[in-house]
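Next comes a single protein record:
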Amino acid sequence: MTQQYENQLIARIANYTQAMRKLGGRRFIFVGLPPVGCLPIVRTLLGTGPDTCHGDMNQLAASFNKRLAELVRLLKNETDTRATLIDVYTVVATATADPSRFGMADRDNKGMLWNRGN
């Protein structure tokens, strides 16, 4: 995701949100991107392996999430508008870095696609 594409996505989200506000919408929930570089499909296709995330992709997702958080902060300043951002990135990154924290003690059997023996 280039900076230009990121700008386009944020602008579209802002425009759609303003359109919904004009129609009477006042409560919005936004969901951020996960650490895309840690997704099993990305690890498999890019060959980083089951225990290594693709850092560049994660940086792009984090950058987008930062911009989305800024948009949500701006929306919260609008009269009678409630906006929430769900931070998926932190939850997934934490679970990936420390699976035992989520009850997954055996790192060799995390239930990921490449560990199912298929």
Observations:
- Residues 55-76 form the longest helix (22 residues).
- Helices lie at 3-22, 40-46, 55-76, 88-97.
- The mean pLDDT is 86.
